[in-house]
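User: Predict structure, ligand S-adenosylmethionine.
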Amino acid sequence: MESKVHLPYFDRLLELLKEQNPAAIAAFGRHVHWGYWEDPKRADGTLPDFANATEQLSRKVCDAGNITDGLKILDCGCGFGGTIASLNERFSNLEMVGVNIDERQLERARSQVQPLNHNAISFVCADACQLPFEDNSFDVVLAVECIFHFPSRETFFKEARRVLKPGGYLAICDFVPLKFSLPITNFLGQFLTSSIDKTYGTVQSDFSLSTYRNLAKKTGFVTRIEEDITRNTLPTYPLVRKLLRENGSVETEKITAGAEFLGKIGITRYLILSFEAIDP
Ligand SMILES: C[S@@+](CC[C@H](N)C(=O)[O-])C[C@H]1O[C@@H](n2cnc3c(N)ncnc32)[C@H](O)[C@@H]1O
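Assistant: Predicted complex:
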């Protein structure tokens, strides 16, 4: 299946990985998301430190999903399968399915992640908003730093609720703007649309926490965790900007610097959210 998704940063990353670029492999060969530092002052700016921080972020989201041995887990927007690889190493008797709209990423995931600990793993090319799975078939649905690319958060929540068993968990992380700042960020966003499109591709970053709360209620979920980890993710930015500069992605570096500014002044928060599926 040819990729329908428009994510120029992944096109560049896949090129770098094909060339065996050591920095790209170290930083984004497994997880493709921001890092989490328990103590951000201890971030040392090295690639191994960043790779460890990306692993910690993935674990935080999995913890918010209440994952234990023996569950059936769906990782939507699974990238190169990093979160599934992490769960595979730490838990047993899991049945895990990774979904990604980009078959090229799934090819890498399949070659990188082999089942361990009596786990079962499959990777399926599909849109997270049109999940090819039966109702009530999963215990946990994850979406690690990808929901802003999906065609609609509302459709995704409905799909996640449909495939989850009652009592199951949806756990995500997302860049969430403050509600009062939306008129300003939407206004500024108009001037940046073409730059964002050329770098990070299709991104919708106008979903506030209260909109998430309303959406959860409307789609059959109860909110369980709302954790603001913005300060724990901030050491990501200088490292990612440096990598982008080194491989000539000047425009992506500028957009990343803009996101860093919004994070530092508290306009955009990096949140981990989890929701429990309730009976209709
Ligand atoms: C920032 S990456 C995160 C990847 C992975 N979750 C991780 O943390 O390593 C965003 C991912 O969302 C995927 N994606 C974007 N739109 C999607 C969609 N509509 N359905 C499924 N996956 C999608 C991209 O292909 C990419 O793998």
